[in-house]
């Protein structure tokens, strides 16, 4: 009878918790596929209804086009690991699965931390944001943590100096720079391009920085991938998401939704900086072998990175 007294939102949260517990018992491959699919669907809906979503998630905040664009950037960052996994879901490389897992754990973990802090500090977020954004984020952190403990986070111990690895290192460096800028100094970027930065702007910048830091785990661990195609899939996902991000910016500019300001140009430049090296990697290496090591040795993340 107690269930009859719950409102629909509470029932949905209860179902989400039950589903998260179920995912904890599934294989990692299944969990990553489910998460990637849900991320793509949720991201598409968010892009289509960005303003409506922001209005429902906040109280007393005037939503502007910069808010909407920052949400679109968040979707692009969320889609990068998701698309990488969907392209590499048939791989037999344990390192690839671990990379996606770590990427999601870092991204969702930092996002949850920032959400909790800003909820307490700003007081501009609604109950719907807690139920449909914060709670799912925390549940994914729980699921990914359980999966990491179950699988042990095994990755290859071999790293070779190759053309693709050099591009992945560049991609890693750029992602870390953008992530650090968004997390540490979200207001500086806005002031630098002559844009007023309100609390919600700064919050969205930090969320994007958290997801960018999570996405940076892919090129960091991706240099240890056994198959060349899995490495290239990281760059393919980067090209696809950055192209979509750039198209949204250009279309918004042409339709007059995005003003011709330094801020708009900075967003375009950021997409291009991320996309061009990835595009080079996607087009390079034709005819080369797709596998580097037939039987690579593996170790846990702690064993490898704990020595650095």
UniProtKB/TrEMBL annotation:
Transmembrane region(s): 69-87, 99-117, 129-149, 170-190, 202-222, 234-253, 265-287
Alphabetical keyword list: Membrane, Transmembrane, Transmembrane helix
Highest taxon listed in the record's lineage: Eukaryota
UniProt name for this protein: Uncharacterized protein
């Amino acid at each position: 009878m107690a269930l009859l007294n719950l409102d629909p939102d509470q029932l949905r949260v209860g179902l989400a918790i039950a589903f998260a517990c179920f995912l904890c018992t599934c294989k990692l491959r299944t969990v990553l596929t489910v998460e990637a699919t849900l991320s793509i669907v949720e991201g598409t809906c968010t892009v289509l209804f960005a303003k409506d979503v922001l209005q429902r998630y906040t109280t007393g905040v005037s939503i502007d086009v910069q808010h909407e664009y920052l949400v679109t950037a968040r979707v692009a960052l969320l889609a990068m690991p998701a698309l990488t996994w969907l392209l590499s879901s048939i791989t037999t490389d344990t390192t690839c699965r671990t990379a996606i897992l770590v990427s999601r754990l870092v991204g969702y973990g930092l996002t949850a931390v920032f959400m909790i802090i800003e909820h307490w500090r700003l007081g501009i977020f609604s109950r719907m944001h807690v139920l449909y954004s914060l709670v799912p984020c925390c549940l994914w952190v729980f699921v990914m943590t359980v999966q990491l403990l179950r699988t042990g986070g095994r990755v290859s111990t071999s790293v070779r100096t190759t053309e693709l690895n050099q591009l992945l290192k560049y991609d890693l460096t750029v992602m870390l720079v953008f992530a650090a800028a968004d997390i540490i100094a979200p207001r500086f970027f806005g002031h630098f391009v002559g844009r007023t930065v309100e609390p919600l702007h700064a919050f969205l910048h930090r969320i994007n920085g958290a997801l960018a830091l999570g996405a940076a785990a892919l090129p960091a661990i991706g240099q240890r991938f056994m198959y060349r195609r899995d490495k290239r899939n990281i760059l393919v996902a980067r090209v696809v998401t950055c192209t979509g991000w750039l198209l949204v910016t250009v279309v918004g500019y042409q339709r007059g939704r995005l003003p011709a300001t330094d801020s708009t140009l900075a967003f375009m430049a950021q997409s291009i900086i991320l996309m061009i090296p990835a595009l080079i990697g996607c087009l390079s290496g034709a005819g080369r072998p797709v596998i580097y090591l037939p039987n690579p040795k593996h170790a846990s993340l702690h064993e490898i990175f704990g020595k650095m």
